[in-house]
Design brief:
The protein has 149 residues and is α+β, with helices and mostly antiparallel strands. The chain contains four helices and seven strands.
Length: 149
Protein backbone atom coordinates (compact mmCIF):
# COMPACT_ATOMS: atom_id res chain seq x y z
CA UNK A 1 0.00 0.00 0.00
CA UNK A 2 1.40 3.40 -0.94
CA UNK A 3 1.10 6.59 1.04
CA UNK A 4 -1.23 8.15 -1.53
CA UNK A 5 -4.11 10.34 -0.42
CA UNK A 6 -7.24 8.18 -0.22
CA UNK A 7 -9.73 10.84 0.87
CA UNK A 8 -11.01 13.59 -1.42
CA UNK A 9 -13.22 16.36 -0.13
CA UNK A 10 -14.85 19.53 -1.38
CA UNK A 11 -17.10 22.12 0.22
CA UNK A 12 -19.21 25.08 -0.68
CA UNK A 13 -21.77 27.35 0.93
CA UNK A 14 -25.15 26.96 -0.79
CA UNK A 15 -27.83 29.64 -0.51
CA UNK A 16 -30.57 27.23 0.56
CA UNK A 17 -31.74 25.69 3.82
CA UNK A 18 -30.12 22.42 4.90
CA UNK A 19 -33.48 20.64 4.82
CA UNK A 20 -34.00 21.40 1.11
CA UNK A 21 -30.47 20.28 0.21
CA UNK A 22 -30.74 17.12 2.29
CA UNK A 23 -33.95 16.11 0.51
CA UNK A 24 -32.08 16.18 -2.82
CA UNK A 25 -29.32 13.97 -1.43
CA UNK A 26 -31.44 11.52 0.59
CA UNK A 27 -33.81 10.80 -2.31
CA UNK A 28 -31.95 8.41 -4.64
CA UNK A 29 -34.29 9.26 -7.54
CA UNK A 30 -32.96 12.85 -7.44
CA UNK A 31 -29.26 11.94 -7.36
CA UNK A 32 -28.73 11.65 -11.15
CA UNK A 33 -29.75 15.32 -11.44
CA UNK A 34 -26.74 16.53 -9.48
CA UNK A 35 -24.15 13.76 -9.94
CA UNK A 36 -20.94 15.51 -10.99
CA UNK A 37 -19.36 12.24 -12.10
CA UNK A 38 -22.11 11.66 -14.69
CA UNK A 39 -22.18 8.08 -13.43
CA UNK A 40 -25.77 7.75 -12.20
CA UNK A 41 -28.69 6.97 -14.50
CA UNK A 42 -31.77 6.30 -12.36
CA UNK A 43 -33.20 5.02 -9.10
CA UNK A 44 -36.73 4.01 -8.15
CA UNK A 45 -38.86 6.88 -6.86
CA UNK A 46 -40.44 6.86 -3.42
CA UNK A 47 -37.44 5.31 -1.67
CA UNK A 48 -36.05 8.21 0.34
CA UNK A 49 -33.38 7.19 2.83
CA UNK A 50 -34.44 7.59 6.47
CA UNK A 51 -31.86 5.65 8.53
CA UNK A 52 -28.48 3.96 8.65
CA UNK A 53 -28.74 0.30 7.73
CA UNK A 54 -30.96 0.91 4.71
CA UNK A 55 -29.89 -0.09 1.20
CA UNK A 56 -30.94 1.82 -1.90
CA UNK A 57 -30.46 0.71 -5.49
CA UNK A 58 -29.07 2.89 -8.26
CA UNK A 59 -28.66 2.13 -11.95
CA UNK A 60 -25.42 3.48 -13.40
CA UNK A 61 -25.05 5.00 -16.86
CA UNK A 62 -23.38 1.71 -17.89
CA UNK A 63 -26.58 -0.15 -16.98
CA UNK A 64 -25.00 -1.83 -13.95
CA UNK A 65 -26.94 -1.88 -10.68
CA UNK A 66 -25.38 -0.65 -7.44
CA UNK A 67 -26.68 -1.31 -3.96
CA UNK A 68 -25.74 1.55 -1.67
CA UNK A 69 -25.46 0.58 2.00
CA UNK A 70 -26.24 3.56 4.24
CA UNK A 71 -23.70 3.57 7.07
CA UNK A 72 -24.21 7.05 8.56
CA UNK A 73 -27.42 9.02 8.88
CA UNK A 74 -28.47 12.11 10.80
CA UNK A 75 -31.66 13.62 9.40
CA UNK A 76 -30.96 16.92 7.65
CA UNK A 77 -27.25 16.89 8.54
CA UNK A 78 -25.28 13.81 7.44
CA UNK A 79 -25.61 10.80 5.17
CA UNK A 80 -22.99 8.33 3.95
CA UNK A 81 -23.15 5.13 1.98
CA UNK A 82 -20.90 2.37 0.69
CA UNK A 83 -21.72 1.19 -2.84
CA UNK A 84 -21.57 -2.47 -3.82
CA UNK A 85 -22.35 -4.60 -6.81
CA UNK A 86 -25.77 -6.22 -6.60
CA UNK A 87 -25.76 -8.99 -3.98
CA UNK A 88 -22.17 -8.28 -2.87
CA UNK A 89 -20.56 -6.70 0.15
CA UNK A 90 -19.20 -3.14 -0.29
CA UNK A 91 -15.56 -3.25 -1.47
CA UNK A 92 -14.42 -0.43 0.81
CA UNK A 93 -15.20 3.03 -0.53
CA UNK A 94 -17.60 5.55 0.99
CA UNK A 95 -19.51 8.65 -0.16
CA UNK A 96 -20.42 11.16 2.59
CA UNK A 97 -22.44 14.37 2.63
CA UNK A 98 -22.39 16.72 5.64
CA UNK A 99 -24.56 19.82 5.95
CA UNK A 100 -23.91 22.63 8.41
CA UNK A 101 -26.72 25.22 8.50
CA UNK A 102 -25.63 28.85 8.51
CA UNK A 103 -28.77 30.75 9.42
CA UNK A 104 -32.13 29.94 7.87
CA UNK A 105 -31.17 30.23 4.22
CA UNK A 106 -27.55 29.14 3.84
CA UNK A 107 -25.73 25.85 4.35
CA UNK A 108 -22.12 24.74 4.24
CA UNK A 109 -22.08 21.49 2.24
CA UNK A 110 -19.11 19.13 2.61
CA UNK A 111 -18.79 16.19 0.22
CA UNK A 112 -16.23 13.43 0.86
CA UNK A 113 -15.11 10.38 -1.07
CA UNK A 114 -13.12 8.03 1.18
CA UNK A 115 -11.47 4.99 -0.37
CA UNK A 116 -9.10 4.27 2.52
CA UNK A 117 -10.38 0.68 2.82
CA UNK A 118 -10.67 -0.05 -0.91
CA UNK A 119 -8.48 -3.00 -1.84
CA UNK A 120 -9.96 -4.13 -5.18
CA UNK A 121 -7.21 -3.37 -7.76
CA UNK A 122 -9.78 -3.07 -10.56
CA UNK A 123 -11.42 -0.14 -8.78
CA UNK A 124 -8.29 1.81 -7.87
CA UNK A 125 -7.94 3.70 -11.16
CA UNK A 126 -11.46 5.10 -10.89
CA UNK A 127 -10.98 5.85 -7.18
CA UNK A 128 -7.83 7.85 -7.91
CA UNK A 129 -9.74 9.82 -10.56
CA UNK A 130 -12.40 10.88 -8.06
CA UNK A 131 -10.74 14.14 -7.10
CA UNK A 132 -11.96 17.17 -5.17
CA UNK A 133 -12.82 18.81 -8.50
CA UNK A 134 -15.30 16.03 -9.30
CA UNK A 135 -16.82 16.30 -5.84
CA UNK A 136 -17.10 20.06 -6.28
CA UNK A 137 -18.93 19.49 -9.55
CA UNK A 138 -21.60 17.52 -7.69
CA UNK A 139 -21.90 20.29 -5.08
CA UNK A 140 -22.19 22.94 -7.81
CA UNK A 141 -24.96 20.99 -9.56
CA UNK A 142 -26.71 20.44 -6.24
CA UNK A 143 -26.51 24.18 -5.57
CA UNK A 144 -28.02 25.03 -8.96
CA UNK A 145 -31.07 22.93 -8.06
CA UNK A 146 -31.36 23.85 -4.40
CA UNK A 147 -31.00 27.60 -4.97
CA UNK A 148 -33.88 27.79 -7.45
CA UNK A 149 -36.82 29.74 -6.01
Amino acid sequence: MSDEQRISTASRRIAAPAERIFELIADPARQPEWDGNDNLSQAPSGRRVTAAGEVFAMTLTTGALRENHVVEFEEGRRIAWKPAEEGSEPPGHLWRWELEPDGDASTLVIHTYDWTDLQDPQRLVRARATTSDRLRSSIDRLAAIAEKP
